[in-house]
Amino acid sequence: METAEAYQTVRGRMLDLASGVDAATPVPTCPGWTIKELLSHVTGVAADVLNGNIAEAGTDPWVAVQVAARADRSLDEVTGEWVETGPQVDELCVALGDGIAQLIFDTVTHEQDLRGAIGQPGGDDAAVEVALRWAAGAWAGSEVPTSGTLLIRAGSVEAVRGDGGPVVAIDLEPLDAMAVMTGRRSLSEVQALAWDGDVEPWLPAFTWGPFVPPA
After folding, report:
1. Which of 7, 15, 2 is nearest to 106 (CA)?
2. Same domain, yes or no, for 114 and 8?
3. Which of 4, 51, 121, 176 could bridge across to 172 with cysteines, CB 3.0–4.6 Å?
4. How many Å apart are CA 67 and CA 164, to the nearest integer?
5. Sheet strand arrangement including 157-163
6. pLDDT, tens digit, for every residue of 18-44?
7. CA angle, residues 83, 132, 30, in degrees to nearest 5
8. What is the residue range of 184's domain?
């Protein structure tokens, strides 16, 4: 799946899922956020991408502005904005391809946050692999807390941290790999997975970028 198709697919699913829900529903995997605030973020990302406001992309202040700018709007107004801007972002995805894959990663991650908030599992398709390809590259370049190699295999994607032996490895379903790599699982849950090797020295690797596993 290409980035444009992935973004269009995930956006469509999120808009469908958000239709008719209680805007004030908490999002457990995004502490302090409601569904409206989650949708304000993804809608705000679309607007910022189109306006070239990406110098601070992914930072807390950047996200906070997106949410605050839509605080006085209804959920329908927020999603209505995304309905209007989404097709323009699709065109940008066609032009930039994998150069905008971080957008897919963010949107896929938040689809799962939304699904968790309303108890509607799903969304496990090729868009997740587009997201994982970007995540694997970003994760690989982050700080290595110990010697050896940490390897997560998920579908056609391999996320590798470090170099050499010993190798600590695991095979996960793509959505499970996304959850583990985006702070949606606690360190105790990560450690309890069926690792081949001792993952404990690698646990700091699961705190990276904006992602902090819950207590």
Report:
1. 7
2. yes
3. 176
4. 43
5. 157-163, 148-154, 167-171
6. 999 999 999 999 999 999 999 999 999
7. 60
8. 132-206
